UniProtKB/TrEMBL annotation:
Residues 19-351 form the Acyltransferase domain. Keywords: Acyltransferase, Membrane, Transferase, Transmembrane, Transmembrane helix. Pfam families: Acyl_transf_3 (PF01757). The keyword Acyltransferase applies. This is Acyltransferase.
Length: 384
């Protein structure tokens, strides 16, 4: 996934928060585990081992990625509204281009070279193509959703500079919320053939939670929470326990059945991840090392490369065993050996991709200043 600016050999921004990089590390590890669950075709059963059930709910990592994007990308705009500094929309788009397009296009061309499926070229326009270029295209849908958010965010924030714009933004948000709640509770809406479910319309709640957390983080409330580390720790623990209960239920119920039973599932988990994020940013106890540490920071840095690489590696390592008729339950050791190899291979290839493909463009991105000069609209407001 995106939004990680990288740290190795790059200029570290003043707003860098190690807690968020480690959370991104958790997100990618959860997603990698979830795809093992799918490729191994593990059955949904109450008597599954603990680790199997854990993997089955790992797609919560995608929601965490969306929350982090909503937080990190809206925060400069919100800070600009607060301080009167204007975010350059042109620079914002250039920064997003350097962050996601080069590596994504490289992944698409590799997928086309390996599969010779012309649907890959459709993906160059960030159009969701599902499993048409399997196994490479499995994670591409979320990048399409991210790009939709990128296209909307700067103009939504531009509206917030003006009184009429704020009314228009509020009206649009209420209209989206009404349609979102109505359609998600309508029979037949949550189906595998509905492309809107995983679009920005369907998953916008996670980005909105991230933006709301950014507003909280920029306010005095964040400082108040930081002065009460015990409360912050309780918030983190309570949200993590609720998340664990939620994604275990999701795993045991099955994705489609769970979403039909609880249509707002992704919004609820986004709220809980937002609580974890704000709590981690507020307290600095030694126990925090469990959730925020250099190893997770490393996985957070290479998460975008790992996100695009891991599914094909998993598939080509594990599918031959399934094709030979070997079941996981009866040939566990053979599968575990290949799982270990595929993890190391994915990790190594992701690190090389990060160093050779991502880092040069991240250096270009790091030279793009976030803010331009003090905004004319802010000067007028100050003069008034």
């Amino acid at each position: 996934m995106t939004s990680s600016d990288g740290r190795e050999g790059l200029r570290q921004p003043a707003s860098y928060m190690p807690e968020l990089e480690s959370l991104r590390g958790w997100a990618i590890l959860l997603v990698v585990g979830f795809h093992y669950f799918g490729i191994l075709n593990l059955a949904v059963r109450p008597d599954n081992p603990f680790w199997v059930t854990l993997l089955g709910g790992g797609n919560t990592g995608v929601t965490l990625f969306f929350v982090l994007s909503g937080f990190l990308l809206s925060r400069p705009f919100l800070d600009g509204l607060r301080t009167g500094r204007e975010v350059s929309i042109r620079r914002f788009y250039w920064a997003r281009f350097f962050r996601i397009v080069p590596l994504y296009y490289a992944a698409v061309f590799v997928a086309w070279g390996m599969t010779q499926k012309v649907a890959a070229f459709k993906a160059l326009l960030f159009v969701p193509i599902g499993f048409q270029v399997f196994p490479f295209s499995v994670p591409w849908w979320s990048l399409c959703t991210e790009v939709q958010f990128y296209l909307l965010l700067p103009w939504l924030m531009w509206l917030l500079r003006y009184r009429l714009g704020r009314w228009l933004a509020a009206g649009g948000l209420l209209a989206w919320l009404g349609a979102h709640l109505y359609l998600f509770h309508s029979p037949g809406w949550l189906s595998q053939l509905n492309p809107w479910e995983n679009s920005l319309f369907g998953r916008g709640g996670a980005f909105l939670v991230g933006a709301a957390c950014a507003m909280f983080n920029l306010s005095a409330w964040q400082n108040r929470l930081a002065r009460r580390p015990l409360i912050a720790g309780v918030v983190v623990l309570a949200c993590l326990l609720a998340l664990g209960r939620l994604w275990f239920w999701f795993s045991l119920t099955g994705e489609r059945n769970a979403l039909q039973a609880l249509p707002m599932y992704h919004n609820i988990e986004a709220l809980l991840w937002g609580g974890v994020m704000l709590g981690l940013l507020a307290f600095d106890w030694r126990s925090k090392v469990v959730l925020v540490n250099p190893l997770l920071d490393h996985f957070g840095r290479i998460s975008y490369s790992l996100y695009l690489i891991h599914v094909p590696v998993q598939f080509y390592c594990l599918y031959p065993l399934r094709a030979a008729g070997l079941e996981f339950e009866t040939h566990t050791s053979a599968y575990l050996l290949r799982i270990g190899f595929s993890l190391l291979a994915s990790w190594g290839l992701a690190w090389l991709s990060y160093r050779l493909v991502e880092t040069p463009f991240l250096r270009l991105k790091s030279h793009l200043a976030t803010f331009s000069a003090r905004a004319p609209w802010a000067r007028r407001a100050a003069d008034a």
